[in-house]
Amino acid sequence: MNGPTPDGDLPRLPPAYRLVALDSVGSTNDEARRLAAEGAEDGTLVWAREQSGGRGRRGRGWASPRGNLYLSLVLRPQCSLAEAAQLGFVAALGVGDAIGSVAPPLIEVTYKWPNDVLVNGRKAAGILLESQGTAGADCDWLVLGLGVNVASYPEDAEFPATSLRFEGCPAEVTEAALLGAFGKHFLTWVNRWLEEGFAPIRRGWLNHAQGLGEEIRVRLAREELSGTFKDLDESGALVLGRDGGGERRVTAGEVYIP
Prior knowledge:
Layout: E1 18-25, H1 28-37, E2 44-51, E3 69-75, H2 81-84, H3 87-102, E4 109-112, E5 116-119, E6 122-133, E7 139-148, H4 175-196, H5 199-206, E8 215-219, E9 224-232, E10 238-241, E11 247-250, E12 254-256
Parallel strand pairs: 1-2
Antiparallel strand pairs: 2-3, 3-7, 4-5, 5-6, 6-7, 8-9, 8-12, 9-10, 10-11
Helix pairs in contact: 3-4, 3-5
């Protein structure tokens, strides 16, 4: 473990991880990207109690007060950039299982394409992937950023949010405890991905997919689509059923579920 150690409890992580624990940082993803560029090992995990410049997808700000979980994990998968993007679904399953392991009964955990984790229909966690590599060649490194609302949540978010505490998780479910649970469950899923490919990840994700079979809207960079969320294809793209019986595969966009 390197860097200034946060006050309080520390997570219990499997030996596959190398923890960099910080009290405060601008962005755990920026710090992990810097370490990756300097040659940090696979499994290097940057964890901070708070972020002053946290961000989500498309550069959106991510409110980062103390009490929530903020981490970024350096990974070096020996695969293409396109295949490495599947690790977002792997991470979602790890987060879902981690929440399920500490949450009270009757809490429903679902996944919203492409990289949100919902608790009782409201966003509790978001995943951000940033990678470096050359098209057609293997991924050099991938930084997997994760934010989980443990103690608090933003009330003015575009998509309704919640926190684990609001949904009934007890006070002993700290960010450190959740990080330990995530480390264990993510490792289980990533090993399965390495051994069996994307198929079991796809099945596990679809079993708890938010909006599957329902009418949704998908906002792309230059247009907005509507249709039925029919499936997740073998690469992780969303399969959108259109009026007239056609289909469209979407690889990047924002999903809105009425």
